[in-house]
């Protein structure tokens, strides 16, 4: 009985805490909180993400996205529109997936400028909030 | 202690039920031979008597359960243990099919869209404001609380009417399609009872139409229950031949709830118009899902249910033609709301939710249609890829969101038991509690065994491809499993003709 | 007469539709609103008529309001996951 209560309420709590980026960041400064949601904040901190690692994760996101037509051969130079056949709406959706992977929010104006894997990776590595 | 209370409660229920069922049985037994029937109707009626057994299926199944309990109590503990073992071993084998999917949820996939549909979040959004601020009585015309609610009610009525090409004044809100159907069958017949004494309907109608028609037999009416062909369609010539000078109503459902067959409404409408007989259609499963136009199809009365179109439960509507005016005697007496046809204060949250659901059915028609057709085709193809399976009902005249498939040599009930990860039904919700095979499939000429092994799949707006893939896989696996433990299947594999076997009674 | 939205505004609106749809806790509603959002935006993408675009944009903003409210309600009253849902893929927690 109690367990079902906890099960159903846990995702809600998680969601609340990470609902705004501000709350998520302040929560991660409390070491005690880390045990609360260990997987989310394991790499929290100022340390910049490794570029190769980011590239790999971005490529994974694209592969999982399932809409691209050349899933097997994605490289940093791959262009969303030309190589993957994504239109502007698809690209928006892909970038939402990227945002969720790295727990960031890409401003609309910048998102509209991101045309390739490399540009996306550059933006992420330059963003301190990414993790 | 608790058990005793429950037991006494159920016996009370049974006592209360008894007089009712015996009364109907008695009444029909005494009235049947006396009445005069046209030859065609008389032939049909002898077959129709089997329908009588459905009147109290709940009690029948309760009796059966009680008898079983008694029998098992009387037998030795050893026998019970064996049954138990067979039962559990079967179940473990079946459970193994989805044991490997750890890390997945436990809630079954919902595939029973004919019983009811999930409420669309957009519908709920429309309804919420009626619980937070818009609480006026729509019939109060002395203040703004009443006016604002009334305005919303009328908007909803417009949306509902628009979907069938009707005028909003022709829509009467009811509690659901069952009430609408009762209103028509009883109301029209009673209004014209001085001159008209005959009602025509079909054998595959929903229970509420059949039972309402049966109730009218007790009031001195004659009812012709038209047969259907093996595809589930009525024969138009037979329908026309059944119309008599004293026929007041023809009631034929639009889309069948068990097999999804679409009746030729336009043609039936023409015949009814020609003979000046009112045409009613129970469109609970059709409204918003197939194109309906009351003027083009000459429909005089049409029943609608809200919860079949992703709307709230507890509300429905009846379309009643104004020109030429269709008269019916109301079931309820009261304040004369809804053109005097259905007295009682409306439920604005339900009405508004229903209206929004209708608006969405209109707005999303093409999108829903394409999505459902695509998934339906996939499901049918996947299921029929199994041996000895067949689709019940017409393959061409059907609503794709309702699929009824027979799996020969598998018992439907055990298949349903084996499919606890998919919410399915072997027939309509009102009969699925009983072990009786579907009367609809019987009407199609299916034998008991095949009717027993039939399962109905419902696909809707919210069904996903992933779910359909899962269902195809799960059904195929479990049918194969159940057949592998079935002696009948073994015989079939050995080439023994099952019809040649003489079964000993037990 | 509502103002015609810019290209960026439309893309931003689409992003919000995707995000909010993604956050439904209910699997079927989540998948449906993702599907319908994609369908509708793709369907309307070629429309050039400024007045038409403005009207669609206005209507879509109302729909987005519904989506925002209903995704929250979906998160408030939750149920076990479906047998086809892996424990990981949920209405995403981030917004």
UniProtKB/TrEMBL annotation, chain A:
Major location (coarse): mitochondrion
Gene Ontology BP annotations: iron-sulfur cluster assembly; lipoate biosynthetic process
Organism: Naumovozyma castellii (Yeast)
Keyword Phosphoprotein appears in the UniProt entry: yes
Source superkingdom: Eukaryota
InterPro entries registered for this protein in UniProt: ACP, ACP-like_sf, PP-bd_ACP, Ppantetheine_attach_site
The Carrier domain, residue ranges: 52-128
Gene: NCAS0J01790
Record's keyword terms, sorted: Electron transport, Fatty acid biosynthesis, Fatty acid metabolism, Lipid biosynthesis, Lipid metabolism, Mitochondrion, Phosphopantetheine, Phosphoprotein, Transit peptide, Transport
Pfam family of the protein (one): PP-binding
Ubl conjugation among keywords: no
GO cellular component, one term: mitochondrial [2Fe-2S] assembly complex
Compartment(s) where it occurs, according to its Swiss-Prot or TrEMBL record: Mitochondrion
Protein's name in the database: Acyl carrier protein
The protein's role, per its UniProt record: Carrier of the growing fatty acid chain in fatty acid biosynthesis.
A molecular function (GO) term: acyl carrier activity
Family as reported in the entry's similarity comment: Belongs to the acyl carrier protein (ACP) family.
Signal sequence segment: none
UniProtKB/TrEMBL annotation, chain B:
Top-rank taxon: Eukaryota
Gene3D superfamilies per UniProt: Aspartate Aminotransferase, domain 1, Type I PLP-dependent aspartate aminotransferase-like (Major domain)
GO molecular function: cysteine desulfurase activity; iron-sulfur cluster binding; metal ion binding; pyridoxal phosphate binding
Cofactor(s) demanded: pyridoxal 5'-phosphate
Keyword set, alphabetical order: Iron, Iron-sulfur, Metal-binding, Pyridoxal phosphate, Transferase
Keyword presence, Transferase: yes
Reaction equations catalysed: (sulfur carrier)-H + L-cysteine = (sulfur carrier)-SH + L-alanine
Ranges of residues in domain Aminotransferase class V: 109-471
GO biological process: [2Fe-2S] cluster assembly; intracellular iron ion homeostasis; mitochondrial tRNA thio-modification; tRNA wobble position uridine thiolation
Main EC class the enzyme belongs to: transferase
GO cellular component annotations of the record: L-cysteine desulfurase complex; mitochondrion; nucleus
Pfam families: Aminotran_5
Keyword Iron: yes
E.C. no: 2.8.1.7
Function as written in the Swiss-Prot or TrEMBL entry: Catalyzes the removal of elemental sulfur from cysteine to produce alanine. It supplies the inorganic sulfur for iron-sulfur (Fe-S) clusters. Plays a role in both tRNA-processing and mitochondrial metabolism. Involved in the 2-thio-modification of both 5-carboxymethylaminomethyl-2-thiouridine in mitochondrial tRNAs and 5-methoxycarbonylmethyl-2-thiouridine (mcm5s2U) in cytoplasmic tRNAs.
Family from the record: Belongs to the class-V pyridoxal-phosphate-dependent aminotransferase family. NifS/IscS subfamily.
PANTHER family: CYSTEINE DESULFURASE, CYSTEINE DESULFURYLASE FAMILY MEMBER
Full protein name: Cysteine desulfurase, mitochondrial
Organism in which the protein naturally occurs: Naumovozyma castellii
From TrEMBL, chain C:
Gene Ontology biological-process entries: iron-sulfur cluster assembly
Database matches in Pfam families: Complex1_LYR (PF05347)
InterPro entries, alphabetized: Complex1_LYR_dom (IPR008011), Complex1_LYR_LYRM4 (IPR045297), ISC_assembly_LYR (IPR051522)
GO molecular function: cysteine desulfurase activity; molecular adaptor activity
GO cellular component, one term: mitochondrial matrix
Domain Complex 1 LYR protein, chain residue ranges per copy: 9-65
PANTHER family assigned: LYR MOTIF-CONTAINING PROTEIN 4, PROTEIN C6ORF149
Family, similarity comment: Belongs to the complex I LYR family.
This protein's name: Complex 1 LYR protein domain-containing protein
Organism lineage string: Eukaryota, Fungi, Dikarya, Ascomycota, Saccharomycotina
Gene assigned in the entry: NCAS0E02920
